[in-house]
Design goal:
Layout (H helix, E strand, L loop, with lengths): L1 H13 L3 H14 L4 H13 L3 H14 L4 H13 L3 H14 L4 H13 L3 H14 L4 H13 L3 H14 L4 H13 L3 H14 L4 H13 L3 H17 L3 H15 L3
Helix pairs in contact: 1-2, 2-3, 3-4, 4-5, 5-6, 5-7, 6-7, 7-8, 8-9, 9-10, 10-11, 11-12, 11-13, 12-13, 13-14, 14-15
């Protein structure tokens, strides 16, 4: 009976019936209050829906029943991170790593929190360890590249973005951020190419239009710059980023009025 309910829940989740999936999780837990998988999956669903406290409560119940479950520590850590509790997130990632010392996702996520708290050295060590454990996880390279840029190492960042893109060629953020690093190193042609690729992958990527517009301004391509900046302003407006929209539109007017 429980297996049938779980299968039904998985089917509903697959087709986007989140409320139906939640009802099935609830039913499984009624039948088997010690079903750690049901609590874990319900927590994941609640977290995806933005109910972070509900998610944390479910992950905590998993850990009450199964104290060494590393994925529950990881997921609770992410929920705490999203709720603004960076220290609590790190504590959970520590426990995830204690339960599973080769858990590359825990090192990767702990590094995020450490960056937010200003512990760049600790974050770099965690990204390095995550990559050592799993050299094929594109996000660890991408995140380490972002940290390298923060530290002023644009060349090192580009090398990491290259690897991230090699592993996931359709990751728009990788191209956009590599473009920013190339722009910093005055490789304007390379930056333009990366921003164009970003837009090709995600035509609604407002920042990529803005970034390409700025580079085109530097290259004296006034018409292209104005077009990109106006597109960026429109997309920012549609996406609720009013300040960025105003900034892009003001820059477009400034470029348009240049003699």
């Amino acid at each position: 009976m429980q297996i049938a309910i779980l299968i039904e829940r998985l089917a509903k989740a697959k087709f986007g019936d989140k409320q139906g999936a939640l009802s099935d999780y609830n039913r499984v837990i009624e039948i088997d209050p010690k079903s750690t998988d049901a609590y874990l999956n319900r927590g994941n669903l609640l977290q995806a829906e933005g109910d972070l406290q509900g998610a944390i409560a479910n992950f905590s119940q998993v850990l009450k029943l199964q104290p060494n479950r590393s994925d529950a520590y990881l997921n609770r850590g992410l929920a705490k991170y999203k709720s603004g509790d960076r220290q609590g997130a790190i504590a959970d990632y520590d426990l995830a790593i204690k339960a599973n010392p080769n858990y590359h996702l825990a090192y990767n996520n702990r590094a995020w929190a450490k960056v937010d708290l200003g512990d760049n050295r600790g974050a770099m060590a965690d990204y390095n360890r995550a990559i050592q454990i799993d050299p094929n996880y594109y996000l660890s390279y991408y995140n380490r590249a972002n940290l390298r840029r923060t530290l002023g190492d644009e060349s090192g960042a580009i090398a990491d973005y290259d690897k991230s893109i090699q592993l996931k060629p359709d990751y728009a953020f990788g191209y956009n951020n590599r473009g920013l690093a190339r722009k910093k190193l005055k490789d304007l042609a390379g930056a333009t190419k990366d921003f164009t690729k970003t837009i090709e992958l995600d035509p609604n990527f407002a920042e990529a239009y803005y970034n390409r517009g700025v580079v085109r301004q530097a290259l004296k391509e006034r018409g292209g710059a104005v077009s990109d900046l106006k597109t960026a302003a429109q997309l920012y407006q549609q996406q609720g980023s009013k300040t960025q929209s105003t900034n892009a539109l003001n820059l477009a007017r400034q470029v348009q009025n240049q003699k």
